[in-house]
Design a protein that fits this description.
- By secondary structure, this protein is mainly alpha-helical.
- The chain folds into 2 domains: 95 residues, Winged helix-like DNA-binding domain superfamily/Winged helix DNA-binding domain (Arc Repressor Mutant, subunit A, Orthogonal Bundle); 90 residues, no CATH class.
- 64% of the residues lie in helices and 9% in strands.
- It has a two-stranded antiparallel sheet with strand order 1-2.
- Strand 1 and strand 2 form a beta hairpin.
- Helix 2 packs across helix 3.
């Protein structure tokens, strides 16, 4: 039986498989990753090394096995966005993000918001992450503003805002940034 290859939008096939494997299974050692993607160690190591250089994976924990410590790797913020663009299950990704990086509330908030918006708007967040190396509340504000420009129902926008409200620090900053954005738009309106 010929295995059907999945088309990746951003990564070579094996790198995409590794990203999706981690998004589904959580942090793992390099050997566990190679076994999980059903490839031999050498090509998996090469693909993994490339992902690490691209800063899409990083050490997340350590696994002790037979008296030795082995690093376990998982997705970075950027890697999480790539996983989404490659088709990772959003609910599983959010669950693992909350387990592996419990202090990264901005990423958790972002993932919850993404589940409610148009997939094309995800590119706004990904672009911001590529430029700055992290997601900030202004990025959420920009995404929400972009979402309002698309034919979105008021109920969807309410759900998005309610989601952000569940993250108090991100919500306060989001409100400030949204107000700044609105002020800038009003100034632009006055000029034109």
């Amino acid at each position: 039986m010929i295995k059907q290859k999945r088309k990746s939008h951003t990564l070579p096939s094996l790198q995409s498989d590794i990203i999706l494997h981690l998004a589904k299974n959580g942090s793992q050692t390099i050997n566990e990753i190679a076994t999980g993607v059903s490839r031999s160690y050498k090509p998996s190591w090469t693909a993994f090394k490339s992902l690490k250089e691209k800063k899409l994976v990083k050490e997340a924990s350590v696994k002790n096995y037979r008296g030795r410590a082995y690093p376990q790797y998982w997705l970075t913020d950027d890697g999480t966005l790539i996983a989404l663009s490659e088709g990772a299950d959003l609910d599983r990704l959010l669950e693992l993000t909350k387990q592996i990086y419990p202090k990264n509330q901005t990423l958790a908030c972002y993932l919850e918001v993404v589940s409610k918006i148009n997939p094309d708007v995800i590119r706004v967040g990904y672009s911001a992450l590529r430029q700055k190396g992290k997601l900030e509340p202004i990025d959420l504000a920009t995404m929400i503003f972009t979402e309002t420009q698309i034919k979105t129902h008021d109920q969807t926008l309410k759900e998005i805002i309610d989601t952000i409200k569940a993250y108090p620090i991100e919500y306060v900053t989001f409100k400030k940034k949204m107000n700044q954005l609105l002020e800038s738009l009003n100034k632009l309106k006055e000029i034109t």
